[in-house]
Amino acid sequence: MQLTFYGHACFMIEVQGKKILFDPFITYNELAKNISIDSIKADYIFLSHGHADHIADCITIANNTGAKVVAVFEIHEWLNKNGVTNTHPMNTGGKWQFEFGTVKCVVAQHSSALPDGSYGGNPIGFVFTTPEGNFYYSGDTALTLDMQLIPGWANLNYAILPIGDNFTMDVQDAIKAADFVKCNQIIGVHYDTFGFIKIDKAAAKQAFANAGKTLHLPAIGETIAL
């Protein structure tokens, strides 16, 4: 597997020959100004919730690429009304066998509304089980005891967790989340984009190291091997 970071909580994972894009928010992110969404190829787009900083470029990229968009039912319906019909609705607790592996939707403690103010359903996270490895993307979330269920569904190689505080977990809560999901290789997201979520990256990496874990903070546009 390979992961390419596009800033904020947007990233691409390539697995089983498929390009899977998560929470596309690039055009409106000043830190990602060197990334052109027209250059992004995707087979799937997974949306954790409906906030603009996770969905802003979804319609454009879906139309450009023909990618199948996976999201909760309310977002699926909203996308259909906005011209994106290649969608797959899911919801918390459900799982589905895709061509690249199995995805289970799990609890995220956050909020969700769509850019036009309509109801966005429940926020969710995703547990991916694939022949090339397993990973968890929590989406925007607080620390929750439900995370302790995840090792029963998958032995994780990586977890992608928010670390920016204010709207989501901070570094210390993300370390505890890593304990809950029994994963020591963490990719941090949802930090630095706005003034509310600025972090000290060196201090964050050291805090994870002190806990016996590795925090990966790839640069925007950087690809790392998983």
Structure description:
The chain is α/β, with parallel strands linked by helices. 19% of the residues lie in helices and 29% in strands. The protein contains 5 helices and 14 strands. It has a 7-stranded mixed beta sheet, covered by helices on one side. A 7-stranded mixed beta sheet has the order 7-8-9-10-11-12-13. A hairpin with a 2-residue loop joins strand 2 and strand 3. It is globular, with a radius of gyration of 16 Å. The chain starts with a strand and ends with a strand. The relative contact order is 0.16.
Key phrases:
single chain; 7-stranded mixed β-sheet; globular; 14 strands; 19% helix; 226 residues; alpha/beta
The radius of gyration is 16 Å
Basic shape? globular
Structural class: alpha/beta
How much of the sequence lies in strands comes to: 25-35%
Element string (H = helix, E = strand):
EEEEHHEHEEEEEEHEHEE
Give the tally of β-strands. Answer: 14
Task: Give the proportion of residues in helices.
Answer: 10-25%
Major sheet characteristics: 7 strands, mixed
The overall average pLDDT, rounded, is 98
Low-confidence stretches: none
> Please, how many helices?
5
Q: Give the neighbour order of strands across the main sheet.
A: 6-5-4-3-2-1-14
Distance between the termini: 5 Å
Task: Spell out the blueprint of helices and strands.
Blueprint: E1 2-5, E2 11-15, E3 18-22, E4 44-46, H1 52-55, H2 58-65, E5 68-72, H3 73-81, E6 87-90, E7 95-98, E8 101-107, E9 124-130, E10 133-137, E11 158-162, H4 171-181, E12 185-189, H5 201-210, E13 214-216, E14 223-225
Parallel strand pairs: 3-4, 4-5, 5-6, 10-11, 11-12, 12-13
Antiparallel strand pairs: 1-2, 1-14, 2-3, 7-8, 8-9, 9-10
